[in-house]
């Protein structure tokens, strides 16, 4: 009788621990999704406002995408001082292999930042949102080959729906062409944006692959340090051409000539840097706490949300095509979320069978 009670008690404790672990993971995913939403919606709007009112420095806006990485010093420091009393707690969690991977991914992210902001300089937000639509397809393809991500009927349905839903936005791009924009610049910006989408579609599974190969337990501290390193290397990459082009020296003059005034010029740059850093933290955090494919799903879900904010903030049109894209993206996200819910429901039974046998 006592043995049976002990078995039941041990099983109950393990089940509670598993539920707590799932709850913490859910909160982590939710927190990073919020950061990603803030950054992906607010960042491109601020960058577009910069270009619409006289801004011309493309490397500067690419630099802003990751230049907010020093903000991570605060949470990293808080975590360090909180855990320094633990003798077994390492001061630096990132292994050398992951540091090297962070440098390589930072280099790729710097290139991707330039391609993306180059497209933003010539395309309205509604058209540059093609980044979100094609990125999901590239992420799904690379996730399959790089990290061997297994597809379910729900995830395939989500990818198809959200890719086609967001691609509908591209069919309406001629109606949103900025007045006075040359065909050459518009076409170049369009293909640069698609190139950024393809590269970012590779970067997201590469993050997941690097974490798995490093064979380390993913913790919040590790995530912050990896994000700091990747953003730092990307910022360093973008700093070199900025120095060559003398972008830093040109900032005061550009601020003086900015249509909205110098104060709003600097405010837009600072706010864009913070928003874009939130996007970077959220994007990497979603990958570390879930998967690269889920990160692509959330990114694509936010594409039509960008359209809504572009309508109110930049007076861009909201057509029937954009409404249809919004509905398809929401449907696709619901499909993927339901599929993940079904999978998670089965996990407790699978995970607790071995433990019960051991007892």
UniProtKB/TrEMBL annotation:
Please state where this protein is localized.
Membrane
Per the record, its GO cellular-component terms are: membrane
Where, by residue number, does the polypeptide cross the bilayer?
27-47, 59-78, 98-115, 122-145, 151-171, 183-203, 223-244, 265-288, 294-315, 322-339
* One of the Pfam families matching this protein, by short name: PUNUT
* Main location class: membrane
Alphabetically sorted, this entry's keywords are: Membrane, Transmembrane, Transmembrane helix, Transport
GO molecular function: any one? purine nucleobase transmembrane transporter activity
Record-linked InterPro entries: EmrE-like, PUP_plant
| Topology term for the membrane | Multi-pass membrane protein
What family does the database annotate?
Belongs to the purine permeases (TC 2.A.7.14) family.
Its protein name is Probable purine permease
Q: What is the lineage of its organism?
A: Eukaryota, Viridiplantae, Streptophyta, Embryophyta, Tracheophyta
